[in-house]
Predict the 3D structure of the following.
Amino acid sequence: MNRPVWDDRDWRPLPKLTGTQRADVCVVGLGAAGLAAMEELTALGVTAVGLEAYQVGAGASGRNGGLLAAGLADPFNDTVARFGEAAAATFHRLTVQEIERQAEEMPAIVGRTGSLRIAADESEKAACAKHLAALRYCGLAAEPYAGPEGEGVLLPDDGIVQPLHRVRAVAQRLRQREARLYEDSPVRRIVPGSVVTDQGVVPCDTVIVAVDGRLETIFPELAGRVRTARLQMLATAPAPEVNFPRPVSYRHGYEYWQQLPDRSIALGGFRDQALAKEWTAEDFPSERIQGRLDRFLREHLKVRAPVTHRWAASVGYTPDGLPILEEVRARTWAAGGYNGTGNVLGVLGARAAARLACGVPSDWAEALAAARTHVRRSCSV
Ligand SMILES: Cc1cc2nc3c(=O)[nH]c(=O)nc-3n(C[C@H](O)[C@H](O)[C@H](O)COP(=O)(O)OP(=O)(O)OC[C@H]3O[C@@H](n4cnc5c(N)ncnc54)[C@H](O)[C@@H]3O)c2cc1C
């Protein structure tokens, strides 16, 4: 219980931090985001230490649905309505570029399959039509879809990833370049000029906290701007009785599934069926949500194969739909709050944090700033 389907190989643990390791920057959290920050800092020639409380990918980065989605969490038309066409198009372009980059860099782990958004009812069909029209109006790839999964939109720019293999591959690559990464080293205190763990300390100029779920427990000043939620999934034994060539998101993205290369199914969703209980920092599966997933698996997806895995993890949601990327305290940056879709957004956000922390401009940060300016202007009209 609480083991993701992705965890199919042994991992040679990284050392624990003991003693003092000086660096320009200390990165807290070694999920996809923290590792991306480490890569960016290395590329910028800055010395860095990365600290992970448990293992690389122990959080949502190694326990998610494996969809690489273009754009922000909300559909493109809603992003345009909220943040303006220019910012929405930039978010889309930069996320597509990042999916392409990952697919080129890790072809065995990342696939460019596209994805389906399937409508659960007539009103969502209308929403899909608006989604499709907005993408096409901006010259972005999208096609109407009707097939065995239902009716909706085909999003050809999206992809899939084996999320735990991805973070482990990035960590290994960093280790080969002698990057200083430490596991089993929970950060207990961040004070000006140093980051403290149980057995070690990292004196540093700058800290980047790359933690999606529970960000507001590390930075209480972010309470109200980011909120931790639990997302849950299950996976089955091979299910040759069904065929899903592409990942699917359903009912406004609340449910999502994909069929893995061995034909097993990974399915997540139903957070909204017990919303009050799912706003929690607990990260183990609950009977209620797992029961809903079981029913959907049997009745809607028609899968007969037995369930082999059940798991959960924490993510951060923001009321305005924009990820958090900011210098929360002097020389201390926070990146998180990806609204359930951080596989691509987390990498872009943490890389941007690394650049800004080093005084280097970032297209991603500029797009976020433009979106916030658009919101402020719209509110003052
Ligand atoms: C069930 C589920 C399904 C999802 N499906 C998708 C999907 O299909 N597509 C998508 O794009 N996104 C999906 N997401 C969201 C996505 O997984 C996350 O947004 C993304 O992985 C966040 O990456 P991160 O590196 O910011 O955070 P995390 O992966 O949570 O990494 C943060 C790391 O920080 C560590 N940490 C925390 N506190 C400390 C501390 N004090 N000291 C040291 N280390 C610390 C944690 O142990 C963790 O390893 C899903 C999430 C879940 C839970």
About this structure: The chain has a mean pLDDT of 97.
